[in-house]
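Re: that chain you flagged

S.,

Sorry for the slow reply, it's been a week of failed gels. I finally had a moment to sit down with the sequence you sent. For the record, here it is as I used it:
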Amino acid sequence: MGLLVISSVVISFGGLVLRNIEDADSWQINLYRALALTTTISLILLFQYRRHTLSHVRKIGQAGLVGGALLSVAGIAFLQAFIHTTIANALFTMSAIPFITAGLAYLFLKERLHRATLITMIAAAAGIFIMMANGFGTGSAYGNAMALVTAVCFSSFAVIVRGNRQIDMLPTLLVSGVIIALVSLAFRVNDLGISLHDLLLCFLWGGVLSGVANWTFIVASRYLVAAEVTFFMLLEFALGPIWVWLFVAEVPSQATLVGGTLVIASVAVHAFNELRRSRRLVRRGGVPPPS
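Prediction finished late last night. Pasting the structure tokens below so you have them in one place:
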């Protein structure tokens, strides 16, 4: 849970980075983000496995290739959603990720959730709804569809990673990065030039923020059920507007503050209950089951 909190806090700065990009369009951002992410993950794998890196990359097998492809679609659709519909529409749709993941994990992994976990997930989703209610509208049908594609693809990726937790699935991020880079390059092959300012921000977003967040997400997936792993992503939606408020003076509405507080409180209560349950079981000599 600690890793997932770190992951969500780190990646929540992505919106702030996007707000500070001056001229680069979505395909240029995706291209340089993907190159930075691929570089970071390659360095992590080389540090972990050294001369055995290639053999560990091959171990992800067909499941890893499918997972990487799904993650690449989610990454591309994510920016498309933000550009073609309102932020409210996009985030409200993507807040369904934990519930989609729970359904897929139940179908394919037979993972069930405790009632307390489900209640905290619903409370957090209510917080997202409060945050976005004032700005929720029809938006663009294409943008709304891209937000739904993001949610379904990321949920599917999370279930694949969880279902193959005995394998280090970190190389799936290489697959994702390569696909995103190639697709973005195809759209901008004659227009690759961006300012140094935007390039550095893309590398910060992809190489540092996304690199750290995705690495901790995959590690945490070995220890928590799939729906619980994605539950912590709601912190990103709650914290993102706060960073923009603090550093760009983009003042959030009262609904955003109330909803964000509810999300953060729900995650905190869930984490506290899980830690208390784990300590109780350890004292009895048992092993904490997944939520």
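What I noticed first: DSSP finds 14 helices and no strands in the chain.

Talk soon,
D.
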